[in-house]
Amino acid sequence: MKLTILGGGGFRVPLVYGALLTDRAEGRVTEVVLHDLDDSRLYAVARVLDEQAVGVPDAPKVTATTDLDEALRGADFIFSAIRVGGLEGRAHDERVALAEGVLGQETVGAGGIAYGLRTVPVAVDIARRVARLAPDAWLINFTNPAGLVTEAMSRHLGDRVIGICDSPVGLGRRIARVLGANPREAWIDYVGLNHLGWVRGLRVAGRDELPRLLADPDLLGSFEEGKLFGVDWLRSLGAIPNEYLHYYYFNREAVRAYQQAEKTRGAFLADQQARFYEEMKRPDAAALTAWDRTRAEREATYMSENRETAGAGERDADDLSGGYEKVALALMRAIARDERTTLILNVRNQGTLAVLDADAVIEVPCLVDANGAHPVAVAPLPDHATGLVCSVKAVEREVLAAAESGSRATAVKAFALHPLVDSVNVARRLVEGYTDVHPGLAYLD
């Protein structure tokens, strides 16, 4: 089976390959094609993969190419993990927003809109090529903003594109762990949009254990989200929000922390990864050791400004291992082998949330089999969550409209309607600032 990874020179690709190396079952991936626009990054990642495969019998064969059409032809599965504009672009997204006093995070608020505006046209081109060159392939989207990009691609690939994110998986795992439950045996009632969802229940053997967690302040304050949001706020919500909702519930504090930080997250990662890729140019460098060291530092500093604002301290060791690659492998296995499973995924709504139309991509538990991912019926969201979900989905639709039409006015509208942008004039200045620094937004007129 052939797997093509778009963005194959990306830093997190070895996580995916490491997961593939653990799969020994029939019908596993035997060929991995890495595609990237940057030869040197492809070379660096291929070196890490080579070292990962040492001692593993029949490890999937790895090839690399800068030819997109060549990479897509004959693919059974395609992972899209591109970053349009690179980490330098992410740093620009952050700086332009923070200069206006609003959040510049890569998936939330102004930064997420800017990232989406330059990513959607590229993602749509990829989707059209997949439809032409690999119409039977399944495309698994890692590219952020994951929900928005998945929805853009679904307009050309339908339900054969599925978005994934490790945030809901990590959240469910943490809740189960603190309750003494096995995450594999728990049903996680999670619903929302990507980076905008809530766990409303965690059922073990038919019993909802979440009320027990909410009733115990010591338990509730013992894990990442309890420390991040605070026990009182979680009990007021009656649910456990995705960590990214910290940007909404504590926006002023988050913006101040990012403004005061020595470097933005994007700038930190750009410098960190530049050192890694530069080190990989040395033939004697230990590729896997260097990658492991860099990854550990990356994971340990994840959302550090938010945790500092909340006084949450360091991340727990169990939360430093990522997880999106495991979701991707489980999804691929379920489809390729008809190994039915349940995963939290980004898929078209299809009536799951009555407040959104059928084509809106949402993030919910799905039953997965050989025919793809099927969203599970969920109870309606409470009013406060419904309002936020509908507001952010409306912004995503304006981003898609701006990307399709090239309308600068529509882009301004997308920024202005976002709950974390507090002025139409700020929205106008954001569009001006982003078009000044991003060649990929030159299409806006």
Strand content: 15-25%
Shape: globular
For this structure, the CATH topology of one domain is Rossmann fold
What is the CATH homology-level superfamily of one domain? NAD(P)-binding Rossmann-like Domain
Termini separation comes to 44 Å
Class inferred from helices and paired strands? alpha/beta
What is the architecture of one domain at the second tier of CATH?
Answer: 3-Layer(aba) Sandwich
Oligomeric composition of the shown chains: single chain
Largest β-sheet summary = 6 strands, parallel
Task: Describe the protein.
The termini are far apart. Among the domains are: 2-163, NAD(P)-binding Rossmann-like Domain (Rossmann fold), CATH 3.40.50.720; 168-249, no CATH class; 252-310. A hairpin with a 2-residue loop joins strand 8 (196-204) and strand 9 (207-208). The mean pLDDT is 94. 51% of the residues lie in helices and 15% in strands. It is α/β, with parallel strands linked by helices. It has 20 helices and 13 strands. Helix 4 runs antiparallel to helix 20 (424-437). It has a 6-stranded parallel sheet, with helices on both faces. Strands 7, 8, 9 and 10 form a 4-stranded antiparallel sheet that branches. It has a 3-stranded antiparallel sheet with strand order 11-12-13.
